[in-house]
Amino acid sequence: MEWIYPEFEVIRDRDRCIACRVCERQCANEVHRYDPETKKMTADESKCVSCHRCVALCPTRALKIVKSGHTFRENANWSRQSMEEIYRQAGSGGVLLSSMGNPKEYPVYWDKLLLNASQVTNPPIDPLREPMETKTFLGKKPTRVRRDEQGRIVPGLPPQLELSTPILFSAMSYGSISYNAHQSLAQAASELGIFYNTGEGGLHRDFYQYGANTIVQVASGRFGVHKDYLNAGAAIEIKMGQGAKPGIGGHLPGAKITGDVSRTRMIPAGTDAISPAPHHDIYSIEDLRQLVYSLKEATNYQKPVIVKIAAVHNVAAIASGIARSGADVIAIDGFRGGTGAAPTRIRDNVGIPIELALAAVDQRLREEGIRNEVSLLVGGSIRSSADLLKAILLGADGAYIGTAALLALGCHLCRSCHSGRCNWGIATQRPDLVKRLNPEVGAKRLVNLVTAWTHELKEMMGGMGINSIEAARGNRLMLRGVGLTDAELRVLGVKHAGE
After folding, report:
1. What is the DSSP letter of 167?
2. What string of DSSP letters covers 339-366?
């Protein structure tokens, strides 16, 4: 709209620019254009999303993208963003859509929690010279050992997911991300001995080969769900909610429903894939229990069932009910979790931080004596190995990473996933863009990331004098808060630094 000045400016060094037109060829948003009369490059900055593709590939380093210096008459109540959103809606009459996680300046509790370290009486462990166990098992754990009349242990452990390290790749559907991005995630999970999640878009036939490291998702739209799909994966996840958009269903624009995507999802090409807000067969914990056991029956009770929920105000009570539904794992998704597309108002205003939700759920399940009935997974802006360890100390068995994984693949967080014009070949179905992501290179970078985090995890645990994930899980004595209120410390279940 002509009333809105571009958010970014393209700065081109005319002395360095050789008009090679690489920027023009690489930009799916058509920002750059060659002017044959002046023989110079020009830019339509209104289309720029600051993806940095042109900057990264400019052979003479003639380009940079900067935030616009243009200002509005802002005040403490009306920001530039608030005014621009009014202009956009007045012009379109539509709901505002956004990609990726909540960008608001709410507290990031990971940054307000500090880790303890061992000193004299409980010496640290050297992870280079002493064994450190990062292996994790997800699923129900027995509360007691059963033996037969001869004293032999009676086997009866429910199905478990074995992870070499407590990291999984988050649910990202085929359609919202590209074939090459899915292959990168699947291949990396297989190499690492961890798992990736299909999201709610079914599983491409080419990726059934990675089934031993795949979590297949059943969402409210049931896209791509059939018996072979359920049996293809190592576990099944029922998606009840998502951190970026609690209380609503998913939406994949018809432009992304191309041939392979439509076949995988089992819907017509070119039609919007809109999943309903609720599962229309689930209106109570009893209904959820029926679906849990239907899925177990369909897979001969050989696969754990995960129930994914968004982090909301009454999440502890919800998790308590889910733990009694027969589910093996509960996945909690915080409000900073990424998404391909969500209504801006919901993404920015609904839900609670994952740190508070996790602490509340872990404490509730412990108080009720049912913590071993389920494992806990968390997601929603796990940005580093430090965030991961803090999540484990607050009670998680493992963590989903989504945005971090996409960054490893080359994502620049330009937050335009819903447009389908991802210049890095990740959140797109355009063949010319998809091929920009080499799956072999992508998988290697994901393996590097998880390997690096695992090394750091061992170093930090060793510094605490802890040699296994199991010993770290829920060990809140190893955490201290800084700059937190009494209420926040109480919910997190940690003491303030210095106590």
Report:
1. E
2. -S-EEHHHHHHSS--HHHHHHHHHHHHH
Residue 471, both tokens: 């010993």
Q: According to the CATH classification, is domain 8-94 in 3.40.50.1980?
A: no
What are the binding residues? Answer: 17, 20, 23, 27, 48, 51, 54, 58
Binding site for [4Fe-4S] cluster, by residue number, is 17, 20, 23, 27, 48, 51, 54, 58
* pTM given for the model: 0.93
- The alpha-carbon radius of gyration of the chain (Å, integer) is 24
Tens digit of pLDDT at every position of the chain (499 positions): 557 889 999 999 999 999 999 999 999 999 999 999 999 999 999 999 999 999 999 999 999 999 998 888 889 899 988 999 999 999 889 989 888 888 888 999 999 999 999 888 888 999 989 999 999 999 999 888 888 888 888 888 899 999 999 999 999 999 899 999 999 999 999 999 999 999 998 999 999 999 999 999 999 989 989 999 999 999 999 999 999 999 898 888 888 888 888 899 988 888 888 888 989 999 999 999 999 999 999 999 999 999 999 999 999 999 999 999 999 999 999 999 998 888 889 999 999 999 999 999 999 999 999 999 999 999 998 999 999 999 999 999 999 999 999 999 999 999 888 888 999 999 999 999 999 999 999 999 999 999 999 999 999 999 999 999 999 999 999 999 999 999 999 999 999 999 8
**HEC sequence for 96-140:** CEECCCCCCCCCCHHHHEEECCCCCCCCCCCCCCCCCECCEEECC
Q: What residue ranges do the domains of the chain occupy?
A: 8-94, 136-496
Two tokens, residue 449? 């990331």
CATH class of 136-496: alpha beta
Is-same-fold flag (8-94; 136-496)?
no
